[in-house]
Amino acid sequence: MDTPTFDVAILGCGPTGAVLANLLGELGLRVVVLERDPEVHPIPRATHIDEETLRNFQATGLIADLLSHTDEFGDAEFVDEDGTPLLVERIADLASPHGYTGSRFFDQPAFERILRAGLRRYDAGVRLELGVDVLGIDLAPDHVVLVARRTDGEVLHVRADWLVGCDGGRSLTRGTLAASMTSLAPRRHWLIVDTLLRDMSDDAGLPGNFRYRLDRARLSIFARGFGRNRRWEFQLGEHEDTPDDATVRAWLARDIDPERLQITRIAKYAHNALIASRWRSGRILIAGDAAHMMPPSAGQGMCAGIRDAVNLAWKLHRVITGRAAPDLLDSYERERRPHVEQVLRGSLFIGNRLQADDAFQRWQRRHVLRLLGAVPPLHALARRASLRRPPLRHGCFDPASSLHGHPLPQVRVHHDGRDGLLDDLLGYRFALVIRPECVTRPLREWARAHAVAVVRPGVEFEEHDGSLLRFMRRRDLDFALVRPDRQIFGAGRVEALPRVQAAFDARFVAAALLPPAPPRHVLITDM
C-alpha cells in the first residue's frame, strides 16, 4: 500500500486547524488535514471575535469574505432579575493596535466553509480529507504515521514529518503526548439553547446585543448572534439534571414566545478552565481546545486557538525548510502558555464576579456591579483586569529590545494604487519596517538572504493618518523587525540594528548557508 507523505498533518478542521492549514499552504508546505465530520457543524459553537482575532483571520487572505458574516457586537448589559440595568459594558478595546474597532458576532459555520474553500487555492499542496476517523498515531524519530478509516470502512495510512493536533477537548493527539489537563477553576454546568428567529421582526423585543441576567435561581446569558441566530445559556446547579422541554420553554418565555423560535439545539455542557501539561513532544504538537479550554465569560476560547495557529505556522515552516533548528518549536508553548493563562484568568475574573450560590453572594454581586457602573475609575480598573493581554515575553525575540513581544500597530495605508491595511502589504512573513534613510546595501543583502521584506514608510506605502510614524517617534524607533504573526522581534534606534540582526542570526539560517536540500518525498494523491 502506498503511503502519501506530507510536511505537516493536521488532525481536526475546526477554526484552529483550518487557519493553520491556510497559513501553511500559503507558505508552500505540503499539508494534509484529517477531519472526522463530513460536513461543517451547522450550529455555531463560538459567537464572538475580538480585534486581534480579526487581524489573525486577515493573515489567511480571506478576511473580505469572512467579514460579510460578522456583525457589530456592541454592548454587554448586566441586569437584575426584573430587568433593571446594573452595568453596561462596551465590548471593544479602544486602544487596540490591530486595525479593527470593536468585537463582532460571527457565523462560525460560514467561517469554516470559507476557510475550507480557501484551501483549494493550494491545489495539491493542501489536501482536506473529510469523514475520516483517525484510529491511531504511530511515532518514529523523524516522522509520524496516522492510521485512519473512512466512513465506507476503507483504512488509510498517512505519513507526515510533523503532526499538529487541533482535535478539540477530547484530543487523541493530546493522549498520544501523554499530556494531562490542569484545572484552574471548578467546573460549572450550563444549559445551552440555540435558536433561530422565525420572523426577524421579533428581534425588536429582544435585548440589543449581549445580556447577563442575574436571577435568584440562576445566572443566564442571552447572545444576539449573527443573522437569525439567538442563544440562551442557563447556569445549572452542580447536581442539577438537564431540564425537560417544558421547563426550557418556560425559561425562554421570559424574553419571547418560544413558538416564535426554531430551537436547533438544547445541550448540557461544562464550563472548563484547563491547560495541557505540555504542548509538544518530538514531532507532535497540539493547539486550540486540545491545548487549553476556557469558560466563555470573555468569549476567548476560539480566539486563543487562532492565536496558536498564527504563532505556530511560520515556526513550522522555518524548521521544515531548514532555516531554523527544531527547538524553535519549543518557543511556541513558552510564548503562548503565559498568554493563555492570563486570558483564562481574565475570563475567570468576569465569571467569578457573576457566580452566586447563596443570598449573600447574590447581594454582593448586585452591589459590586452597581458600584462599577457608578464609579468610572473603578470600572476602568476592573475592565483592565479582565481584558489585559500580556506581551509575549519569553521565546523567539531579541530580549534586549524593550518592545519585543508587542504587536506592531496595524494602520490604514495607500499601497500600489490601493487603500488597505498594513498587514496586507507586509504579508505572513518577517518584515523590517524601517526609516528610508537607515537602509543600506548590506542590510538589503542580509534581509534578502533571510527572506525578510524591507518596508519603508513613505516609500513602499503612504499612511492615511501618520499613526505608525507617531508610534515610532513616541517609542524612539528607527526600525522594527516584525515576525509573521505581527509580534515585534526587535526594535530600536538604528544603532541597535546590528544587535537585533545578531539575535536573528542566532535563531535562523541564511539561505546561502543551507546544505543541499534532500530529495522531496513524492506526494501520492490517490488517497
UniProtKB/TrEMBL annotation:
Gene Ontology MF, one: 3-(3-hydroxyphenyl)propionate hydroxylase activity
Class of this enzyme: oxidoreductase
Record's keyword terms, sorted: Oxidoreductase
Gene3D superfamilies: 3.30.70.2450, 3.40.30.120, FAD/NAD(P)-binding domain
E.C. code: 1.14.13.127
Domain called FAD-binding: residue spans: 6-346
InterPro entries: FAD-bd, FAD/NAD-bd_sf, PheA/TfdB_FAD_monoxygenase
PANTHER family associated with the record: 3-(3-HYDROXY-PHENYL)PROPIONATE/3-HYDROXYCINNAMIC ACID HYDROXYLASE (PTHR43476), FAD-BINDING MONOOXYGENASE (PTHR43476:SF3)
Protein name: Bifunctional 3-(3-hydroxy-phenyl)propionate/3-hydroxycinnamic acid hydroxylase
